[in-house]
Structure formats: structure tokens, C-alpha cells
Design a protein that fits this description.
Strand content of chain A: 15-25%
Largest interface: A-B, 54 and 54 residues
Number of strands of chain A: 12
Oligomer: homodimer
Number of helices of chain A: 13
Distance between the termini of chain A: 78 Å
Strand order of the largest sheet of chain A: 2-1-3-4-5-11
Structural class of chain A: alpha/beta
Shape of chain A: elongated
Largest sheet of chain A: 6 strands, parallel
Helix content of chain A: 40-55%
Radius of gyration of chain A: 26 Å
DNA sequence: CACGGAGATCGAAACGTTTCAAGCTGCGGT
DNA sequence: ACCGCAGCTTGAAACGTTTCGATCTCCGTG
């Protein structure tokens, strides 16, 4: 007793299959009488149209794929939500997949997307991935790199100027009287992390103070932040940085907790700045200063850019412009770094 | 220049289409020589198998659907992650969709799942939805209700005993000397919320103290928690409850921030307990006491139950047992409610 | 009354895959 | 030299849909 198809519906309603198809896709083209009979048949049979059949015939789906590292980081879940809203308004469904930073999973999902004939793909990744995206573009599936600026001119991307974000964080700390800076983040090969550090270094150089101490970590999680924070709290005050910039809010929140638990006053003894400005940064008991990546437009812009790529085809843009949007981040100053001079 | 199909590959490799199919699905059944030729052809043509064609022929996909209200709540994203891991190990891909509490969206996604012929569906919802799930079960798509115990015997579910959780929270507050309780949560028609409140009431009755003051809210978010917290902080100390139980960690974190900002000492003047034990509850500067819903097994159990339903068919279970797992929650005591007596 | 046109309906073909009965090949045993 | 068997290989059929030229019906016009 396999599920009924459009044929069974047609037979039951006493009409041709083409008519049933018309009813489903262009209800206005079929007479009221038949529409009624068809609706009845569908109901009685419990007919559900098969998207596989439809997709096979049409050659495309109404799916867009979204590959992100990790939805448990509020930064990504906030973007995901926005993407879903925007795509929905454009009649598309989003197929979410999470790589958890694993390269194999990334590959597997990208391939799955292609097999499903998604119309386009949104990709957030901490790994070099442009070559793979270029190959998919060749085969007709466009993509937008989210969160990092693409090197290849032909690869659309939506990103934050992380160097600028890092510089703002650094300048802010310095302006608040910090002279002994530290950067907590990693792995350093990750472009976004490296850029943020670079920006901070630039600020230090400009102010002619020592470059930040780099505390590299393998993972940006609360637990790791906590561990690093405990280490800092354990140092004698003289050997402790007085201004810390974390690559990430999640990391920063862990740091903050361990510092305070270790008896270090924030922002008094250590001023702290995070990155992403996620929801929980603002909700902390000592609200966290953070570099905001304008979430409001970010996900939506990615979707829009993807649609542009879908329309324009996958070649270079006719107008020669590159489709790479870079947002200027904004420093949101809160208590964790606000110091009386 | 449509994408090449298995036929073009066969032609190019000089073999029959059946052989290419065999190569793709049972590589051991084709001779080394042909395998080589086919691999070559696939490479040259950039062939990507169409999952639509495959699914059409097979009649099933390797998808399971997961409908949840909102991935920006860490509670759900933690479950989602677990579900994805478990499903992956079983060779399934998870199709995520988010209802954002909207009934229409819920409907639309459930229908989309069915059209895609998912093997089964995981559903978290705050609305009554069992009737719809029953209809889908009739048509051959099993589901597992996640987070709330199903009323219908035939509907598998994985849930937490929310009444017990509420009772534990209440008893704990009382044991810590609180005599004037309050419950913050809502909307009350939501089963999970009502159950938690019920449990707390039970505890109050058992201890012969006044039942909790109920502060109903329309939405469980940080912002709402903050607003309620500000309201409490503004009251004269005598009119303020000394033990507050929030339906949700997100809500609790908002409350906590506003209380402290309003000069109310936590846990000194107000002891606070949340629910879900999400990652950020533990990471708060005043770590939040919370009722933990054993995330470790939760998502995995849901997937396992779904698979059982898929195997067993969609009728009542042969052994007559109902497939409803109820977990006993565990109170994790942290500083936000720990009081010196 | 014949004709034309508009609008609704029909039904075969095609999309890309897997299955499976049937055919083919080569080898070992008698 | 023949048979039988095992293992590869073949290719047609079927899955459920949409498209589109052909057909049919009906009505108004000349």
C-alpha cells in the first residue's frame, strides 16, 4: 500500500493527470466543478505530492543550503534565524547542516547539497574552502561565503572587517588606560582570529605601547575561556595584563567568570572586550563590551547576495562589480571595559 | 548544458547504465577495469548523482525532520546537536526547521517534511499538535514528540517530568529558607510551563507555606526576564518574594541581571532557580541553580525512539509497551540559590 | 448555419535513478 | 568436447511529476 500518486487521484476524480497537476500548481486554470472533485479525491486518498517527482521533472529544488560550524554558538544561531526568515520570504526553504569544525563533515554536506540540487549555498567555515566552492560553481551551484572575505574575485562573500574590529577593541582598551594588553584566541591559522589579532596589534603600534601578549587556544568555548581566566587570575597582579581582548564572546564570558571568581576585579584590574556581541554578552552581570557584527543585515545580505548569484548565473557579473560585502563592525562599550581614569 | 546523468557517464565509459548504478551503490560487484573507466568518466563529466531520481525510484529518503521552535535558545540548540550526531551515526541526515512558535510555519514545515518523504519526524512544540502527528502517522510517517509527554498512547515521546522539576525547585527554595515564593513564566496554557508551576505549588503545599505568586509573561526571553526583574527590584523589600523560580534559564538570566542591577542581592535577598541548565546558566557570574534535563541522553533517545517507530511500523507496538520515555530531572544547585542559614 | 476563437481538458513524453530477469563469459570438472 | 556454474554485465521497466501540443466544448459573430 504505497502512497497514492497523482495518477490515483486523477482516476478517482475521473479526470486526466494533467488536470490534477494543473489544479495543484495553477488552481485558477481548472473549472470549479473539477477542482471540487479533485480536492475530494485528494482528501479521501490522503494524497501528498512527492517533491522528488516534482524536482526530478523540474530539475531544481526550492532549497538553499546553509553550512555553519556550530549552532550552539549564539553568533551562528542568530544569523541562521535571519537567514531562515529572509529565505522564507523569497519562497525558499533552508537546509541547515553543521560541520562542527570537521572537514569531512563539511565535504559530506556540501556534496549532499549538490545531490539535492539546492539552488545555492551559504557557507560559514573556519577552514580554507574556496577551492571546493569554486568547483561547485563550475558545475552550476553558486554560493556565498559568510563571515570571511573571499580571496577569489568570483566568490561572493559577506563579512565583517575583522581587522577593523580588532583595532577598535585595541584602541578602546588603550584609551581606557590599559598598557599591558593580551589577546586570547585561536587557532591562529583561522583567518578571522588572525585578523582580529592583527587589528589589535596595529592599535598597539599606533599608540607606541608593547604589542599584546598572545594566549593561543585550540578552541573558542566557555570552558577554554574559563581555563585561561583561571590562569590569569593565578598570576601575581604585576604580571597580569590589564586589558584583554577575546576573539569571541563565548570565550570572553568564560574568561570573565574565572577572573571574577579568582578575585580579579573587572574592569578595575582587567578590562575585557569580546567579539560578536551575542545576546548573552549583554545579559551578563558585568555586561560585556563587544564588537558587534551588525546581525540585523548580515544574514539577510547573505541571502540577497546568493539570490543575485542565482539570477545572474555563475559567471562573472555582467557589470564587473565583485559581489563582496564587507561590513564595518561597531564597538559596543559596556561595563566590562569602562574604567574611571 | 544540463547536468550529466548516469546515462552520459555510462556512454562515456562504454558500459551499461546498470553497471554505473552498481558501481555507485555496490562497488564490489563491478570489475576493477570497469570501475576505473567509470570513475574516470564521472570525473571528466563532473557527474553528481541526483538524489531526486534515487529517491523517486526508492520511494524513501534518508532524511529525518526536526521541527523545533527556536534554535537561538541554547536548550534547543544543545538537543539539535545531539540529534544530528546520533542520526549521522545511523546514516541519516537531519532536516532542521524552526517554527518560531508560529502555527502556520509549523504546519508548512510538517507538510514539507511529508512531501520530501522523510523517514520520520522529531517535533518540539509548545502547541497542541498531536492530532496532526496522528494524521501523518496514518499516512506512514512516524514521529516522536520531544519535550512533552504525549497524551495519545500511540504517539511516542521523550520528555522531562516537569512537575517533578518544579517540585524540586520549590523544595530547594524552601529548604534554603525562602517563605515567600514567586514563579515567573508563561504563557500558562503551555503544558511545560504549567507543569513546572504545578510542581512548585505542590512543594509549597507540602511545606504548608503560601503558594507562589505567579508572574505570567507572554514570552520566555532575556528581555522579558529583565523587565520582570526590574519590576521586582523596584518593589520595597518587604513586598518582594525571597525565592523565585523561572520557567527557563533564558528568562532567569534576564531576571538575575536586572535584580542585581537594581541593587537586590542574589541569593541573599532573593534566591533564584532556572530551568534547562543551559551552558550560559553555569557560566554566569553568579552561577545559576537550574533544573537539568539530562541533555546527554535526551536527543539521542529521541532519535532512537524514532528509529524504533520506523522499524516497527506505525501501528501499536507488538509488545504492547508504549514508547514514551520520561526523564527525571535533576536539580543542579549553584550559587544563585545557595544561602547561609 | 458555418466559422472562429477562447478556454478547459487530455495524455504521452521526459526527467535520473535502481532493480532484476536474462544474457554473456570463462573456468573447472568429467 | 561438453556441461554447469559463478560472477559480470546488460537494458528495459518503473517510480511521480510537469509540460505542451492536440483535442474538445461552447458560444458569439457574420
Amino acid at each position: 500500500m504505497s502512497r497514492p500518486g497523482i495518477r490515483q487521484v486523477a482516476a478517482r476524480a475521473g479526470v486526466a493527470v494533467g488536470t490534477v497537476s494543473a489544479y495543484l500548481n495553477h488552481p485558477d486554470r481548472v473549472s470549479a466543478e473539477r477542482a471540487r472533485r479533485i480536492a475530494e479525491a485528494i482528501d479521501e486518498l490522503g494524497f501528498v505530492p512527492s517533491s522528488a517527482g516534482r524536482q526530478l521533472r523540474l530539475g531544481v529544488s526550492s532549497l538553499i543550503g546553509y553550512l555553519s560550524p556550530d549552532v550552539s554558538n549564539p553568533h551562528f544561531s542568530e544569523i541562521a534565524q535571519e537567514v531562515e526568515y529572509r529565505a522564507e520570504r523569497l519562497g525558499m526553504t533552508v537546509f541547515f547542516a553543521h560541520s562542527h569544525g570537521d572537514r569531512e563533515r563539511e565535504d559530506a554536506y556540501l556534496e549532499a547539497f549538490e545531490q539535492r540540487q539546492v539552488r545555492g549555498i551559504l557557507v560559514s567555515s573556519f577552514q580554507p574552502i574556496e577551492a571546493r566552492l569554486a568547483a561547485m560553481r563550475e558545475r552550476g551551484t553558486p554560493s556565498v561565503l559568510v563571515g570571511r572575505r573571499a580571496c577569489d574575485e568570483l566568490q561572493p562573500s559577506v563579512s565583517i572587517d575583522d581587522v577593523s574590529g580588532g583595532r577598535q577593541a585595541g584602541e578602546h582598551l588603550i584609551a581606557n588606560g590599559c598598557r599591558s594588553l593580551a589577546f586570547v584566541g585561536g587557532p591562529l591559522p583561522v583567518q578571522q582570529v588572525a585578523d582580529r589579532l592583527d587589528g589589535m596589534r596595529t592599535a598597539a603600534v599606533a599608540a607606541s605601547i608593547d604589542p599584546p601578549d598572545v594566549i593561543e587556544v585550540a578552541e573558542r568555548s566557555i570552558a577554554v575561556g574559563r581555563a585561561v581566566g583561571a590562569g590569569l587570575a593565578a598570576r601575581p597582579a604585576a604580571e597580569r595584563p590589564d586589558g584583554v581582548f577575546a576573539a569571541n564572546d563565548v570565550l570572553a564570558l568564560g574568561l570573565l567568570q574565572a577572573l571574577v571568581a579568582g578575585g580579579v576585579s573587572v574592569p578595575g584590574e582587567v578590562a575585557l572586550v569580546g567579539y560578536d556581541d551575542n545576546e548573552f554578552a549583554e545579559a551578563s552581570l558585568i555586561p560585556l563590551t563587544s564588537v558587534r557584527a551588525r546581525h540585523d543585515d548580515f544574514g539577510a545580505a547573505a541571502v540577497d547576495l546568493l539570490f543575485e548569484a542565482i539570477e545572474h548565473g555563475t559567471g562573472p557579473r555582467a557589470d564587473g562589480a565583485t559581489s563582496q560585502r564587507v561590513y564595518e563592525p561597531e564597538l559596543i562599550v559596556r561595563e566590562s571595559s569602562r574604567r574611571a581614569h
